[in-house]
Amino acid sequence: MGATVVGCTPWRDEAHAWGPEQRAISRELEAQARAIVDGDGALDVGPVWAMTRGARVVGVGEPGQGLALFHRFMQAMVERAAADARPLVVALDVCFVDGLELDAWGRGDWDPSDPERFDPQGFEAAGAYRPLLAWIREHNQFAAPGRAIQIAGVDGCLGAGGLDPLAAYFVDLDPELAASVPNLLAPVRALKSASRRTPAHVAEARAGLAELRGRLLAQREAQVAAHGAATHAVALQLVWLAERRVDTYDDTGATPRAQRGRVMADTVAWLAEQRPDARIVVLADNEDTRRGSSSDMGRRLGERFGADYAVVHTTFDSTTYLAQRQRMWAPPGTLEAALRRPGRAYALDVRAAAAGPGSLARYLREEHWTRAYAEGLLDQARPGWSTVVPQHDYDVLVHVAFVPQAPYSRPAFGAEPSSRRAAL
Predict the structure, then answer these.
(1) Residue 339: which of 287, 293, 397 has the closest Cα?
(2) Within 13 A of 199's CA, how many CA atoms are on the CB side?
(3) What's the whole-model pTM score?
(4) N or C: which end of the chain has fewer CB within 10 A?
(5) Torsion of CA 281, 283, 288, 293, to 10 degrees
(6) Spatial CB neighbours of 383, under 8 Å, sequence gap ≥ 6
(7) Cα–Cα distance measured from residue 211 to residue 387, given in angstroms and rounded to the nearest whole number
(8) What domains are there in the chain, each with its CATH number?
(9) pLDDT, tens digit, for every residue of 126-180?
(10) Is the bond into 256 cis (omega within 30 degrees of 0)?
């Protein structure tokens, strides 16, 4: 599972293999699919939320960047989660440090001197999440004690610049310790140079971080008394991220994508440990959230949380691309084409559907090609495709007939350009 291709058509054999059963698949899909919009085009994610079966960690994926419609869906899922009695953490695929700043902004605890940065229209890390972040900030202003939504970033952002926030964090936490942090981090910074990535230099970098961790633990009581346990835990997590940064120079057997996925999964697990009473909604790419993830995040979360990890996979049948201004349908043989339900957006309880008899159940238990990404904002955008086994990889499938160009500006969810209700 997980092979990704661009520009070829390996799904043609699928079209022939499943062609004789397509009518049965479509008929059974019609009986089991649940509409997620009403007659006026209003989005209703209630059926989707019910299909996650109360899971503690819910991964909501998007099929690509630049498709704002799916961020609208993600926001609706967060709003639905916030309506439950359980506290909520919204984990975004942004840098961990950016998540700290977004959380402070979202709670109204901090308005930095540069208002453009946290508009959030001008905050680069916010990206397409800006409407969601603005909603969270407004929600938190009126939330009861203990009901404020926490925002978190789960991407380790293991580039060299990631050390700067670690050093800055200690200025307020422990000024005396902060003075020595630059020297302790110097060996880690030196690893940017290829000539310094020797076993001896890597060991020196690890030793500096181990000393920093040791000093933090030694001062824990005083730091917790002054700033709280959560602040001390974040400091330790920042050190942990720096240690993972060193791993990128030392672990030659893992791809950068796998290293990133491992850090993201471990960060979600850390959030779960810090907030044992909370539900965590993870918003990321489909390729990160699904259990057969080539990036490892979804696989690791599935292993860690078991049935308490639910995956919502989103995809679409057709769209238009900026450069060509032409319609692009999912080709025959792909999952999007086989599970096409013309004119309507729907959710399918994959776990339940795959457990039953019939052609649809058999289809969901086999491997198929599905959209891996679609960069809707780029002129040269082309769809990519990846293999999935629906029953194994996710719990819920959300299938939209048509995705308009970003930014999203249409009143109806997933409507065709020529008809406000055609895709509902």
Answers:
(1) 397
(2) 0
(3) 0.89
(4) N
(5) 40
(6) 6, 64, 328, 371, 372, 373, 374
(7) 44
(8) 1-75+307-424 (3.40.1660), 161-254 (no CATH)
(9) 777 888 999 999 999 999 988 999 999 999 876 666 677 788 888 888 888 888 9
(10) no
Residue 235, SS3?
A: helix
DSSP of 245-271, one letter per residue? HHHHHH-TTS-HHHHHHHHHHHHHHHH
Q: How many residues belong to the chain?
A: 424
Tokens representing residue 150 in the block? 């926490």
Position 90 pLDDT exceeds 70: yes
The amino acid that residue 138 corresponds to is E
Question: Using alpha carbons only, how large is the chain's radius of gyration in Å?
Answer: 23
Do 317 and 336 contact (CB within 8 A), yes or no? Answer: yes
Q: Using omega within 30 degrees of 0 as the cis cutoff, is the peptide bond preceding 120 cis?
A: yes
- CA distances 294 to 4, 51, 63, 314, 399, Å, are 9, 24, 14, 17, 22
- Written as one letter, the residue type at 16 is H
The tokens of 223 are what? Answer: 């730091």
In the three-class reduction of DSSP (H, G, I as helix; E, B as strand; rest coil), residue 92 is classed as strand
Q: Is the pLDDT of residue 116 over 60?
A: no
